[in-house]
Design goal:
The structure is a homodimer of 285-residue chains.
Chain A lengths: L13 E4 L9 H10 L4 E3 L2 H7 L1 H10 L3 E2 L2 E5 L6 H21 L4 E4 L10 H22 L3 E3 L16 H11 L7 E6 H4 L5 H12 E6 L23 H10 L6 E3 L12 H15 L1
Parallel strand pairs in A: 1-2, 1-9, 2-3, 4-5, 5-6, 6-7, 7-8, 8-9
Helix pairs in contact in A: 4-5, 6-8, 8-9
């Protein structure tokens, strides 16, 4: 029985993944809203950065003094043929360079699922390994750590065939045995809270390999496999406990609220969303 | 890359989990339909057995010559207080006796999720371990093996906090170190297909501990976390590969089709459903 109480987080550690306000805000509006609410970190997405322009995005983030906790996202390696896999690699190379321009602390890597029509999960996972191996040197050269994010097993088929921290860390061991920090993981409580090995694998990851910590909540019931995440505190995840584990492993970075919520939070005003994130971060994270 | 071809299954190995036809059939209708289609195995559910009467159910199954591949279901151990946990144990004891009366090859154990209002996943898992420990002797005495079924991690909060074969087998090791077959696992491809450790954990389970093999398919997209399973062949699971692994481990039992499908198969005529199960079992399993 876990009855340990945890210290509340430092409010300055809150960051917002821009997907949380994606329906109401473009890049400029997101940055302005974060300043308005004195939130110090952002994780922008490629589509919004492209829309605003890469250099302009970098400037507005820099001018606002925001930490870029991660850049979303690259990966998506598996494809039906060599051409598709090469296109994925090219996209990854560009994303690495964009992440460098933005000064991102890491580039978030979502593995990708099964190629259309395929049932070859083992093959898809080999493509992920090979793809990561192809881009790692460029990422290292650009000073952009790659944060491989295991996604929840319910997203294995169509989004990401890397589904546990153990699996992600096995890939880190294989591809970056030096453990220099060029390849690590993003720990999103939504994806990993259920994992019986979570504590052990967070310990295994350690400070060098925990490149991001994402927060939201698991709702009961959950109505959609992708777009029904909860605000921190509205679900069943013991966020303080998981935070205590990443902190015990040495993680000192920000806590990035990332809430895909098509029917609820995406429909609300950005100020309400950010005020709620701040309050919940202090009270239940 | 998996390119190995597998032998088709023996058609006589097909069994039907009664949930697959639950909306169209009571116990009698299910048994009659299985006879009509010369399907040799059934896995009945407690509610339908209670409705038809336990002894009458046992007689109709026996008269039809059906193998009872499993009895669904017991478990559901976590509860908010001692009284709730005791009620769960009492239900489990009754289910064990019913399974014995029915001549079931095993009693399917679904762990149960978080008690209402709780975020204590570690505590819930301890309740599962303790509950299994409480009922195991009675099950052994009744000659009813307990088949702990890890459910997909997306069902962790509300249905089952045992979510991987590794976790289930760790419990088996802890509670039944003799490996005599009193406690084992049910391998349902829907719940475990995504697991990077699947092959290794099936090997680890071995013949003694694989008490059931359940088939259906993972649809892309999946519209509901519980009731949108696919007919074998309509999704992305490489069923023959997983079957080859359980067979390599020594499993020689039946292949139980268990399809929760509120919007599709549950709405169809039982004959159509069973004919399709038979065809798909031969062609894609």
């Amino acid at each position: 029985m876990s009855t340990m109480k945890h210290n509340p987080p430092n409010p300055e550690q809150l960051a917002i993944n821009a997907a949380t306000v994606r329906e109401s805000c473009n890049m400029r509006q997101t940055v302005d809203a974060l300043r308005r609410h004195r939130i110090g970190g952002i994780s922008p997405w490629r589509d919004k950065v492209a829309e605003a322009g890469l250099k302009d995005s970098a400037k507005m983030i820099r001018d606002a003094g925001l930490t870029v906790t991660g850049y979303c996202r690259a990966g998506l390696f598996p494809a039906r043929d060599r051409k598709g896999r090469q296109q994925a690699l090219d996209e990854n190379m560009r994303a690495i360079e964009e992440a460098a321009t933005l000064g991102a602390q890491c580039l978030v890597i979502v593995a990708g699922g099964l190629p259309k029509g395929s049932k070859d999960l083992i093959g898809a996972r080999e493509m992920v390994r090979d793809g990561l191996g192809e881009i790692l040197d460029h990422a290292r050269g650009c000073g952009v750590p790659l944060a491989l994010e295991p996604l929840h097993p319910m997203q294995c088929a169509d989004r990401a065939c890397v589904n546990t921290l153990r699996q992600a860390l096995d890939l880190c061991d294989e591809l970056d045995s030096s453990k220099g920090g060029a390849l690590g993981v993003a720990v999103d409580v939504y994806h990993v809270w259920w994992d019986p090995e979570l504590k052990a694998q967070i310990e295994r990851a350690g400070e060098k390999r925990i490149l991001g910590f994402h927060i939201c909540d698991w709702l009961v019931p959950t109505a959609d496999l992708i777009f029904d995440r909860g605000m921190m505190g509205d679900g069943v995840i013991d966020i303080p406990m998981i935070r205590s584990w990443v902190e015990a492993a040495g993680y000192r970075g920000m806590h990035e609220a990332e809430i895909f919520s098509a029917k609820n939070w995406w429909k609300r005003d950005v100020d309400e969303v950010l005020v709620t994130c701040k309050m919940r971060h202090e009270s239940v994270c």
